[in-house]
Structures are given as C-alpha cells and as structure tokens.
Write a structure and sequence with these properties.
4 helices; alpha/beta; 17% strand; four-stranded mixed β-sheet
C-alpha cells in the first residue's frame, strides 16, 4: 500500500523488486489533480484502504510493511490496537538515520502484542517477518546464511 498515485505504481513495484521485496498486489491512492501525497494527504487513503481490507477479508491475518520515515509505524500500531489478532507482524524498512550503526536490522520489538521487525531493505526484512509471522519460506527456496 502506498500513498503515491496509481500512475506511479510501476515505478514503486520496480523499486520494491530491486530492494528484495516479494511481488505483491500494490494498493495505490486514487488519481487526483493535486500531488496531495506530498503533504500527507495519502494518510487518509491508507487508513481507508486498511479498514476496507479488514472488512472484506475477515479471516485473514496481515503482515503490514512500511517504512519508518512517515506515518506507517503509528498507523500500523493503531490498526493492531483496533483489530486484535488481525495483524500477524509489522515490517518497517529503515529510512531514518539513528544513533549507532546506520541501517542495521534491529531487535524485534512488540506493539499491542504484534512483533515489529525493522531492517534496511526487503532482503533483510523478509526472514525476520517470516519468523515473526510464523511463515515458512516457500519450498525450493534457497536458504540464506
């Protein structure tokens, strides 16, 4: 899910693929005449999309993936609080500089009982998310060391 408009979907998908994220269905913000996503207008669209997913897929537990550079952390924590048991794990790509070594996987923390995995890219985020959500790698997948 992204606050970027649909006409940028291919670029977003390409960037995610280059960063090691698995191929998924990308939910984008609706097309508008103003670049409202530049000033945070996409937050309302993201919240609405998350709420629709909860309503239409009541038997699904979600792994939510975002980054630490915007509202994703708070939005995902809010969803975990509002929908107990529906969020299996939260993944945050590290985009902000922190004290100490930059862009290293961080220890798993929990918010409202949901594990939060942080790493600098999809390749490093995916194993932690699989473990946190209790999902095995696909059969035939190479074992990463």
């Amino acid at each position: 899910m992204t606050a970027l408009p649909a006409n940028l979907a291919r670029r977003v998908e390409s960037a995610l693929a280059r960063d090691g994220y698995p191929r998924v269905r990308l939910l984008t913000a609706p097309r508008v005449l103003v670049a409202w996503w530049l000033v945070g207008g996409g937050q309302a669209a993201k919240r609405a999309a998350l709420d629709r997913l909860l309503e239409t897929s009541s038997q699904v537990r979600w792994v939510l993936v975002g980054d630490d550079g915007g509202p994703d952390r708070a939005m995902f924590a809010d969803l975990a609080a509002r929908a107990p048991g529906r969020v299996a794990a939260i993944g945050l790509r590290q985009t902000l500089e922190r004290r100490g070594p930059l862009r290293e996987p961080q220890p798993v923390e929990h918010v409202h009982g949901v594990p939060v995995v942080q790493a600098p890219n999809g390749e490093e985020l995916l194993p932690g998310l699989r473990t946190a959500a209790g999902v095995e790698p696909p059969r035939g997948a190479a074992v990463q060391r």
